[in-house]
Amino acid sequence: MKYWGFFVLKLLVTAVVGFVLWEAIHVIWPSSRLSYYGVSAPRFGHDLVYTLVLLLYNLVLQGLLWLNIWDQRYRCRICARRLRMPVEEGSRSHMLLFGPPHIEYICTYGHGALDVPEIPVSGRPIWKRNEDMWKELFKPRDRSK
């Protein structure tokens, strides 16, 4: 639930930034005084600077949305923290022996791992949930041997 809640929060922040930018654009460029038969003329498509500013505004919002989605892909599905420690596995030259190359990212709190294929056509990222990834590292040693 944290994972999706964090994503929704990021989208809300992006929407607020977009709304503030939209209002700033319309404060800087007030509506035109020209009118045709009592109806004000549209600015978009007729005022070159205003049209270019709206184009840049659109590109900024699309970029922010893309960054939100890209960042969310590399977060833990349980705690929403960034995944760390990328480990490359497989080989392009030995694909038939060792499988397709992929990168595995892990949650440092042991919640799971994300398998991201290096070759995009070979599949999509797979989340592997672990009960306790670090249990083997910290289990007591058997000193009787």
3D architecture notes:
- The chain is 39% helix and 17% strand.
- Helix 1 (2-28) packs antiparallel against helix 2.
- The longest helix has 27 residues, at 2-28.
- Strand 5 and strand 6 (126-129) form a beta hairpin.
- The strands form 2 sheets. It has a 4-stranded antiparallel β-sheet, with no helix packed on it. A two-stranded antiparallel ribbon has the order 1-2.
- The protein has 2 domains: 2-73; 84-129, no CATH class.
- It has 3 helices and 6 strands, in the order αββαβαβββ.
Brief summary of the model shown:
The protein is elongated. The mean pLDDT is 83. A hairpin with an 8-residue loop joins strand 5 and strand 6.
Please describe the structure with a list of short key phrases separated by commas or semicolons.
2 domains; alpha+beta; 145 residues; two-stranded antiparallel sheet
The structure class reads alpha+beta
Mean model confidence by pLDDT: 83
How many structural units, i.e. domains? 2
Spell the H/E element sequence.
Answer: HEEHEHEEE
Q: Number of DSSP strands? A: 6
Strand order of the biggest β-sheet? 3-4-5-6
Report the total helices: 3
pLDDT < 50 runs, ≥5 residues: none
Helix content estimate: 25-40%
**Beta-strand residue percentage:** 15-25%
CA-CA gap between termini: 46 Å
Sheet with the most strands, sense and barrel status: 4 strands, antiparallel
Shape type = elongated
